[in-house]
Structure to design on (558 residues):
């Protein structure tokens, strides 16, 4: 515990995510998972399919509210405020916690308007051109699109589309950005670009990322949360097995289950 | 050692023969489906094309033994009544479709509304005329363009609503997710993202509904009747007067024992088909643009 990272205990927690239970209808999808997300760090969520890592991530900005039978027990505190308190408007939550999805999903409008979208929603009054440029530079896309900002966002390649989605998410400078397997639909080169971008982003933003790819978590995440599926009670319920500094978790996991997963014994 | 298999085509093989015959039948039936449209078009061009001139569009219908004449007033009447019908059916249809597709797809109201719309698409158009007659003509005491427009709107509404619902549903779910993820309210997501994306499909549906309404005769017989005069001679009040339409003109003139009127009926048919044809092609062009 004498590694430099142990100083992380004093790191500021931006989002304190305490899931007691998440249900879809009567199905218990996730239980007992406590994931603190630290400021200006990348927190990786890994685990086998169906372990609830995406469910937990999407609960943070209340995207799961779109699922009709979704029910959440627990609390997710954003700088102290419970995002699941009764008086909280999920629409406002999503403006502060941006999201990048698995499939690149730019809007069918110009590249410029895609990036300006969040600014317009927030009725931003300042210089749009400057903010759009800033966001596109922040997403490492500016040089590729600066001469064709009027083209439709959907005309870009998959990797460019995903960076456009990242630009769209950061244009409003949300403190936190959630990424749900942002590179899983991309080729290796585009994946590498997105990974490099994430490391850049953490200077200004707090990032939480779900990934299927353990190596990706090892490459980008500062903290990693490992989820697994508990089939002992008849259902298939995901839960947090352990969480810690990424190197520590990969090199010296506390739980046997983590070790088995990392060594490829199940997936 | 076994002999090498024979791969050559053998048409005397019963299996190959059956396949050949059946595929030929499918081609034949597909061609058969084109024959009615092309023969109607050919006949209209042959018989209506002869009278095709500017006079058709600028003149009033002739009286019994007159020569010449046209049906400019009927074209205006058709356009006005279809316009009234669209003003009613398009907003109601699209707004209803938004509810069906987005806000309450599984609610009882939506299920009932969808069922009603589907039934309405199959209802004989004459019933729309009878309904508008009893609700509008009987109440206002006169045949009118408004009554005709309302009758046509009843026929357009279900088509507009169902095609718009489908167009809205076709918008990819990931695009809605993106909108919600950006912090859109449901209304903003609909207005800024989903509707623009669905618009080509919605316009296609509207065009098809208009094209259908433009050619309807039965609903107009009891509602707009006919008129031998230009519309709007007496201002906007003419909307409450009997109004000419191409479809009713064709119906009236084709039954007359005068060669001039019969020729005009053919010419009017050609004009009507051209109008519908243009709308159909426009709707296809707009529909293709979405890709």
């Amino acid at each position: 515990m004498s590694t430099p990272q142990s100083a992380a205990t004093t790191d500021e927690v931006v989002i304190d995510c305490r899931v007691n239970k998440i249900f879809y209808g009567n199905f218990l999808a996730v239980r007992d998972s406590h994931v603190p997300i630290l400021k200006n760090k990348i927190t990786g969520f890994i685990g086998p399919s169906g372990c609830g890592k995406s469910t937990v991530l999407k609960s943070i900005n209340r995207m799961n509210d779109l699922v009709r039978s979704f029910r959440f027990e627990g609390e997710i505190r954003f700088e102290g405020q419970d995002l699941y308190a009764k008086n909280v408007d999920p629409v406002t939550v999503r403006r502060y916690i941006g999201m990048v999805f698995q499939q690149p999903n730019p809007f069918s409008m110009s590249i410029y308007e895609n990036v300006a979208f969040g600014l317009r929603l927030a009725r931003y009054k300042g210089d749009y051109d400057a903010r759009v440029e800033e966001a596109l530079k922040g997403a490492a896309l500016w040089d590729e699109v600066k001469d064709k900002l009027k083209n439709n966002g959907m005309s870009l390649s998959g990797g460019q589309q995903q960076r456009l989605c990242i630009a769209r998410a950061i244009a409003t400078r949300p403190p936190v950005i959630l990424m749900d397997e942002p590179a899983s639909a991309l080729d290796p080169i585009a994946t590498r670009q997105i990974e490099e971008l994430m490391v850049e982003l953490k200077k200004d933003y707090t990032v939480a990322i779900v990934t299927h790819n353990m190596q990706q978590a090892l490459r980008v995440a500062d903290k990693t949360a490992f989820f697994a599926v508990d089939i002992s009670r008849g259902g298939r319920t995901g839960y947090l097995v352990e969480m810690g500094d990424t190197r520590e978790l990969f090199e010296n996991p506390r739980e046997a289950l983590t070790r088995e997963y990392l060594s490829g014994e199940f997936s | 050692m076994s002999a090498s298999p024979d791969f050559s085509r053998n048409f005397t093989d019963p299996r190959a023969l059956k396949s050949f015959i059946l595929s030929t039948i499918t081609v034949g039936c597909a061609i058969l489906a084109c024959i009615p449209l092309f023969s109607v078009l050919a006949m209209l061009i042959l018989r209506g094309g002869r009278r095709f001139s500017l006079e058709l569009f600028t003149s009033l219908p002739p009286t019994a033994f007159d020569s010449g004449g046209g049906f400019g007033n009927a074209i205006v009447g058709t356009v006005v009544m279809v316009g009234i019908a669209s003003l009613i059916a398009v907003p109601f249809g699209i707004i209803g479709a938004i509810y069906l597709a987005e806000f309450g797809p599984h609610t009882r109201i939506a299920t009932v509304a969808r069922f009603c719309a589907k039934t309405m698409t199959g209802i004989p158009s004459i019933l729309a005329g009878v309904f508008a007659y009893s609700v509008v003509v009987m109440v206002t005491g006169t045949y009118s363009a408004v009554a005709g427009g309302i009758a046509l709107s009843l026929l357009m509404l279900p088509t507009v609503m169902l095609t718009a619902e489908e167009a809205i549903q076709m918008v990819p779910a990931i695009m809605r997710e993106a909108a919600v993820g950006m912090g859109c309210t449901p209304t903003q997501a609909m207005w800024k993202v989903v509707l623009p994306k669905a618009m080509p499909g919605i316009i296609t549906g509207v065009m098809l509904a208009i094209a259908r309404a433009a050619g309807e005769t039965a609903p107009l017989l009891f509602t707009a009747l006919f008129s031998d005069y230009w519309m709007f001679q007496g201002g906007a009040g003419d909307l409450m007067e009997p109004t000419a339409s191409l479809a009713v003109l064709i119906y009236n003139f084709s039954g007359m024992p005068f060669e001039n009127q019969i020729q005009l009926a053919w010419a009017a048919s050609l004009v009507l088909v051209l109008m519908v044809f243009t709308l159909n092609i426009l709707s296809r062009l707009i529909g293709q643009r979405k890709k």
Q: What stands out?
A: The beta strands of chain A are 13-24, 27-38, 42-46, 70-78, 81-82, 97-100, 176-180, 206-210, 223-230, 237-245. The mean pLDDT of chain A is 86. Residues 44 and 224 of chain A are 5 Å apart (CA to CA).
